[in-house]
Amino acid sequence: MTKTQYEFVRLDHKVLSPEEMIERARSFRQDIEKRRSVRHFTEQQVPMEVLEECILAAGSAPSGAHRQPWTFVVVTDAEVKRKIRAAAEEEEKVNYGGRMNEEWLRALEPLGTTWEKPFLETAPALIVVFRHAWGEEMGERMQNYYTQESVGIASGFLLAALHHAGLATLTHTPSPMGFLGEVLGRPEHEKAFLLIPVGFPTADCEVPKLGRKPLDEIIERQ
Fold first, then answer.
1. Helix H or strand E encompassing 156
2. CA 221 to chain centre
3. Is the pTM of this model over 0.90?
4. What is the per-residue pLDDT across 172-222, written as a single tens digit (0 to 9) for each?
5. Is 97 exposed, middle or buried (0-12, 13-18, 19+ CB in 10 A)?
6. Which domains does the chain have, with CATH numbers?
7. Are 37 and 207 in contact (CB under 8 A)?
8. From the CB of residue 56, how many other CB atoms can be counted at a distance below 10 Å?
9. Backbone angles phi, psi at 195, to 5 degrees
């Protein structure tokens, strides 16, 4: 039997009444439903402590073998944001110019998006989430497991935390995203996973009026 490297402690968990569980679940659902993808930001700065607390929340996500295969790079420097925008728009020009097929372009058309990404400069902060293909422990290379799933869960935690803190966000995935590692000087084993502009929406910010699939279309009870 292999000895575990972790000390086990008793779980801190409070059992709630069904009524309280329902109320808490409903309250969270009603709040998170208000989160929208925003592309028009003011120049108002976001306190760094707020971003740090949200990233700590993201870092509490479960991960394969507890490898925690993520890095969250917070970008507030105007020149670095300019470089990211320029590189992202170069990729997006190619995407909209033929890399994306006609079906993909038709799906995007109602949203009114183009290759231009000014929000990458106007948002006061960008959070770039990197996935670690592998890691190191005591100078030795170690395999990471389920990195896509782990970083995806952490990113979900991060988006929920930022919304809960009163911030607007956008999930941006300029594909391919290799330029982010180059601009930000990240090591080879870190792969860009998600780019999140963060800030406050402009007073005249508009978002598409979207419907959501009803419960019976997204749940299967067995």
1. helix 147-164
2. 29
3. yes
4. 998 899 999 999 999 999 999 999 999 999 999 999 999 999 999 999 999
5. exposed
6. 46-202 (3.40.109.10)
7. yes
8. 13
9. -115, 120
